[in-house]
């Protein structure tokens, strides 16, 4: 049916996907109900192509036999293999709201069971009236250029051979611009200039809002911190390493350089 609700179904933080179609990679309410899952929680996450969408956390038998085209998959893996950008955005929203619901059952101030607000996305303590909202962590991500080269680095947490732009969380009491300068200095030991805002992207690993920037090298030589960064270097457009997923803002920033827009 045209307006049949779409369900982003998660089980143990894995998304149920249709592995045959990238744009139809999630399932409808009727398809899910036919599988007789036990619904733990269900959350309205807006609309997708004029269809109402819900993030649904379920329980099921670990040995359940799914239809051949359906599979539970970690969201990051699904983003690499099945999901297109639009679906990934909605799936990430669902994952974050489900996780917030699971981790905010009791008041962190007095320990009383929380109840859900009927007017906004929040949980309220009936004892001390404290309100809990979904957590969003602002993070910076920056592409640094030096002449005809860009700075790319590897985190020890990356998939093998992947290089990307520098990134990090904004600290309390710090402006986003201050965070960019600090993260670049801490991770690779250089100074930057001509900082310019490019755009943002919600990133559900686990709950970041990525604020993307471009900048130019001002001074210093690369000195990796050895903790957040295990390797870094300057790369020309004809000698780029393996890059991050195309749906990421990191890839979008690097594409500016490739297309000579930065």
Primary descriptors:
262 residues; globular; alpha+beta; 6-stranded mixed β-sheet; 5 helices; 36% strand; single chain
Oligomer: single chain
Poorly predicted runs are none
**Helical region count?**
5
Largest sheet: 6 strands, mixed
Count the beta strands. 15
Helix/strand-derived class? alpha+beta
Q: What is the residue-mean pLDDT, rounded to a whole number?
A: 91
Question: Shape from CA axes?
Answer: globular
Radius of gyration: 21 Å
Brief sketch in words of this structure:
With 262 residues, this protein is α+β, with helices and mostly antiparallel strands.
Structure description:
The protein is built from five helices and 15 strands. The strands form three sheets. Strands 1, 2, 3, 4, 5 and 6 form a six-stranded mixed β-sheet that branches. Strands 10, 11, 12, 13, 14 and 15 form a six-stranded mixed β-sheet that branches. A hairpin with a 2-residue loop joins β1 and β2. 31% of the residues are buried.
Secondary-structure blueprint:
Elements (H helix, E strand, L loop, with lengths): L5 E6 L2 E5 L8 E2 H5 L4 E11 L2 E9 L10 E5 H7 L3 H19 L11 E2 L6 E2 L6 E2 L4 E10 L2 E6 L11 E4 L6 H13 L2 E13 L4 E12 L11 E6 L12 H10 L4
Parallel strand pairs: 1-5, 10-14
Antiparallel strand pairs: 1-2, 1-3, 2-6, 4-5, 7-8, 8-9, 10-11, 10-12, 11-15, 13-14
């Amino acid at each position: 049916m045209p307006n049949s609700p779409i369900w982003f179904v998660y089980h143990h933080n894995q998304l149920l996907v249709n592995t045959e179609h990238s744009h139809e990679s999630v399932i409808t309410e009727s398809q899910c109900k036919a599988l007789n899952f036990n619904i733990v929680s269900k959350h309205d996450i807006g609309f997708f192509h004029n269809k109402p969408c819900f993030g649904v956390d379920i329980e099921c038998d670990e040995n359940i036999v799914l239809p051949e085209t359906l599979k539970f998959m970690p969201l990051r893996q699904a983003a690499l293999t099945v999901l297109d950008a639009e679906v990934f955005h909605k799936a990430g929203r669902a994952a974050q709201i489900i996780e917030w619901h699971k981790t905010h059952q009791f008041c962190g101030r007095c320990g009383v069971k929380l109840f859900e607000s009927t007017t906004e996305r929040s949980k309220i303590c009936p004892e001390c009236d404290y309100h809990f909202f979904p957590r969003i962590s602002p993070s910076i991500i920056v592409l640094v250029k030096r002449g005809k080269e860009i700075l790319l680095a590897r985190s020890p947490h990356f998939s093998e051979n992947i290089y990307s732009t520098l990134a990090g969380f904004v600290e309390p009491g710090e402006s986003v611009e201050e965070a960019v300068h600090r993260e670049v200095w801490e991770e690779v030991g250089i100074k930057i200039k001509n900082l310019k805002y490019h755009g943002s992207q919600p990133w559900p690993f686990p709950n970041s809002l990525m604020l993307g920037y471009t900048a130019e090298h001002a001074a210093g030589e690369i000195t990796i911190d050895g903790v957040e960064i295990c390797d870094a270097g300057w790369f020309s457009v004809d000698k780029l390493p393996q890059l991050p997923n195309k749906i990421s803002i990191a890839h979008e920033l690097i594409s500016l350089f490739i297309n000579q827009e930065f």
